[in-house]
Amino acid sequence: MSGRGGKATLIAVVVVLAWLVIGGVAGPYSGRLGEVATNDNAAFLPTDAEATRAQDLAGEFVDRQTIPALVVYERPAGITDADRQRVSADAARFAQVSGVITPLPPPIPSEDGQALQVVVPVDDAEGEEIGTVVEKLRDIAGGDRDGLSVDIAGPAGLLADLIEVFSAIDGPLLLVTLVVVLIILLIVYRSPVLWVFPLLAAGMSYALASVFVYLLADAGVVKLNGQAQGILTVLVFGAGTDYALLMIARYREELHRHDRPWDAMRTAWRGAAPAIIASGGTVIVSLLCLLVSSLNSNRALGPVAALGIAATLLVMLTFLPALLVLGGRWAFWPRRPRVDQADPQTEHGIWSRIAGFVARHARPIWLSTAVVLAVLTLGLTQLGATTLGQSDLFTQRTDSVDGQEVIARHYPAGTGSPATIFTTERTARQVTQVARGVPGVAAVRPLTGGQQTGPPDPNAAPKVVDGRVQLEATLADAPDSDRAERAIRDLRVAVHRVPDADAVVGGFTAINVDTSDAAERDQNVIIPVVLVVIAVILALLLRALLAPLLLIATVLLSFAATLGLCALLFRHVFDFPGVDSSFPLFAFVFLVALGIDYNIFLMSRVREESVKRGTRAGVLAGLAVTGGVITSAGIVLAATFSALAVLPLVVLVELGTAVAVGVLIDTIVVRSLLVPALAYDIGPKIWWPGRLYRANGERAARDAR
């Protein structure tokens, strides 16, 4: 017997050492993901989007693609000669910055004489280094001085602010996530030792996921952006800790029945692994459904997050069990489990009492909880999905937001970010006239040949490339506003009607329009696909049809209630103007996939207990045993997604809040009350038409006799 124990210990040591070596190699990559991330919205558009085709055509009219930084100077009392001298001196220094395309066009004065604007073209090939270029421009321009304010806005300024936000992922976000998980594990286990095991395993999962994501992004197989990187961090630590809690809870149960930790772990692994694999597999498949998205950004998030879950599954089913075997009973100090053959329910007094309450009031419980959730869904009328404007993207003031507001006060708000229209040379004049007549378009002029060093020449000949010309339409409203988007839609309708024009409309605002349209299409396609996939997985796991359908119905109800509650919070507590067009889809994928996790944890154990005890007794036993671990797991996941709030970006704060609220509703209401009460009330029919349905029905008939 000692020989078997020694061999088991040796295997555990080898597994742990092997993983530590892997962690040593993979660890550094977790801090290098920012090197292969890109945050250019246009790069994530569908290839057949009109804005994408316009971007391709724009490349034929210039030697190098540029993204404009708009340096705007404002003096409410009126720009002075000294101000003009300062602007000219700054512009000369801007031209010397590496990454800036010269010569710069002359400063543009506002009609009211209170502002000057310098358009600084930045080489688009700089990629993520655009943030560095903009920082150099900000250093040159300096701060406000003697009543003259200066801000840097435009697409380059906005991109620089986004890059700065996402740079916090490798540091503050990861640190906050670790601290949150650590605190919750200390509260859950009340042990100075046990918290180390799940946290170390979660860290190993993140390192392993990072190396695969880095290599794939570096090779161009996937496109990683800051949003996907942030979600990867919290998802791996949240889901990893969930799986660890489930494994550790089952291991503790088996230590009451087995003398040797190896035997306890072997039994625990057999009991917990199927639920963990099914749970992780459901999340992976749900995330991979994003591959059918028309947006490259969504298609990137799917495999990136799926890789994170796959790495987490591998670590939690190998590295964590080996650590626990080596830790033995001492890992649970000071509450070490003894071999006493105790029923698992005896260690869960509170949840045994909750199970008894469910048994006595099953039908009123599931009816009342369903009604409460249905009432919360009424808040969906306040959701108001839209494309967030630049001033609404951040939770705090940024230089690019301040600059855009200055531009809107003194210029046509679309100055510096014009819509681009490509049409044939023969129809250019007609298209220009039509475009000028569109509401929301302030001016239209052709792109001329050569570099502009003075005021625009209205008589200059347009530049012609392969029989096409490029027109620039300045919008009257801010390029990221709802009114600007309506203008783009109207502009497209108008120029598309011109015979033989073959007109294509692009630019910053057009990118937002096409992104919003693609997001709406994705919701209509991906959500049904995810539901079908989850239904199939649940049917295979539970070997029934009725139970999966009811579980999916509870998850959908929980999802709708979460969005309704969040809509009220966003509007009346956080004072957010709305949600981004991508929010409903992301919220659905994460809430439904993760919500099904807890259904799987509960119902797989209920099925196991139903085989031994009968359905209704199995429901109560499953609830009593898993209630504590599922609630703990839900709190961990909610807390880790709440860590997204450290990034001052509205879309991530909204997503983190939605997942946190949804997971808490799932664990506290749906999984603790609604599902068990519904399953208890239905009885053996819940397993229809499987073998367990027939076996439990026969048992119930015998008991009745």
TrEMBL record:
It is a multi-pass membrane protein. Its main location: membrane. It holds the Pfam family MMPL. It comes from the Bacteria. The chain crosses the membrane at residues 171-189, 196-217, 229-251, 272-293, 305-326, 365-385, 525-542, 549-570, 582-602, 614-639, 645-665. Residues 231-326, 552-680 form the SSD domain. It is found in: Cell membrane. Keywords: Cell membrane, Membrane, Transmembrane, Transmembrane helix. Gene3D superfamilies: Multidrug efflux transporter AcrB transmembrane domain. Coiled coil: none annotated. SUPFAM superfamilies: Multidrug efflux transporter AcrB transmembrane domain. Belongs to the resistance-nodulation-cell division (RND) (TC 2.A.6) family. MmpL subfamily. This is MMPL family transporter. The lineage of its organism: Bacteria, Bacillati, Actinomycetota, Actinomycetes, Micromonosporales.
